[in-house]
Amino acid sequence: MGRTIDTADAAAQTAWMDTLPNGTGKRVLVLAGNPNVGKSTLFNRLTGMRQHTGNWPGKTVSGAWGECRIGGAEWILVDTPGAYSLAALSAEEAVTRDFLCFGGADAAVVVCDASALERNLNFALQIAELAKRVILCVNLMDEAEKKNIRLDLAGLSRALGMPVVGMSARSGQGVQALLREVARCMQEEIPSPRRFFAGEAIEQCLAPEEAALRQLLGAGLDAHWAALRLAEGETSLLTAAARRAGAADAEGEVFRLYRCLQTKLEKAGFCREDVREEIQRRRYAHIGQLSQKYIHRGEDAGARRQLRADRLLTGRLIGIPVMILLLIGVFYLTIAAANVPSAYLAKALFWVQDAWYALFQRLGVPWWIADPLILGVYRTLAWVVSVMLPPMAIFFPLFTLLEDLGYLPRAALNLDYPFWKCHACGKQALSMCACQKGTPPAACSCGRGIY
Q1: Which CA distances in Å does 296 have to 118, 145, 148, 417?
Q2: Residue 364, SS3?
Q3: What is this structure's pTM?
């Protein structure tokens, strides 16, 4: 039994949680993680469903739930969309964050890619600051082994203060170990929330508002995590949490706390962007220390080739010129090469138009039928197809080729800093290049600086 819920509508991003069968007394386990780490594969294996999810501009963002058996008890398993942070400036991040905050999950499993664990740990640490019972599921261990990457999972578990389980969801290896950890964490005493240290100066500013938020929100959200969100200006989330806690003037009280906190931070020399940057800097510094201790990379020819490609394509001197030349080449091929097939296609389609119009005349079809159908509908369709189809048939395969070769992430990295200076993200450049008319660029979710 299970269900997929369409959450493309912004109003449905929290309403879909009401469709879960919470009144049955079953415990709720939520799966979270970055895109393309095997979350849905694990979800399908545990529930027997055939859930498919995606994260790109124009793709419907969905949440799905199913039922599974863990430790002799029935559980509701929730598969949230892939996300990079809990900042929630994109639809999939909003769905994931809102469920972690308000969905009533008893435990959370954060699925990570073993071959790119450093990148995935950023999101895992954010969830660990919010949720009380967290299990880190290091998936794709077989892929990490192929890349000669060795992980000290026991040491990582001690350092993070949470269970860490290695797994390969496609083959089923490690799935039972994960279920045992989920059952065990429910039988033990709830651990204390993992406290993130944002620096002495920021923590001193947060202390009074943290105490006030603890009274305002009750047990709904961790007060320290909420204070950090308040420092970053996420007042709408805290207002919703205060309303759920039954606060009389939730919006006014949250705004008052926000103004007081911002005043103290400004006196201490921090603006809102500085707070976000400091939090990210400290989190990534912690991830770097964990990586040095518990992630060991052996000699790998593929990794060496990728490193050489990184130095060439993202280098300070030639990274931008190479990117400009490649993009110019793609657009030139799209425009110039499309002229020839466009001309042949137009010639063929308009030959069909003339043939149909002559046939209608021979059959004596009235002009008020023939002209709208042939010279109106068909001619418009022929122009659109002959003009649009050849460029699309060239541009999108070329962009797909660049993506498969691994160049597009490097181009996003090249543009990340100048876009970040504009309170945006390098990934938005690719959205602007590739998205269709009317499709907004994807919101930044890289987890660094301005989200």
Answers
A1: 11, 11, 8, 29
A2: coil
A3: 0.68
